[in-house]
Sequence to fold (110 residues):
Amino acid sequence: MIARHEDELPVRLMCRVLAVSVSGYYAYRRRPESWRAVNDDVLMAHVRIAFAESGETYGAPRVHHERRAAGLPKSTKRVARLMREAGLAARPKSRRRVVTTDSTHADPIG
Fold:
């Protein structure tokens, strides 16, 4: 949040309001991205591909199974978390309507 509003408000003020030390904020900005975050980014790319290939019908268990078959053994819960954070949700199958008669005919009833 501080980085997004740096142009509008002083960093010192935002740090004071958010109870964050200024040096801690700048140390956070200099720090490289964690290994897990990088790994999550790679996994998320694979999850998006599997989700798109399924026609957006696969949920986390099926996406996890697809990725495991491709050689990416990550847990189902991790895949579910990534999908939730990205807003990916499986579309439910559309209900089939059973049609037994043709009620739009012009023939007399009887």
Observations:
- The mean pLDDT is 88.
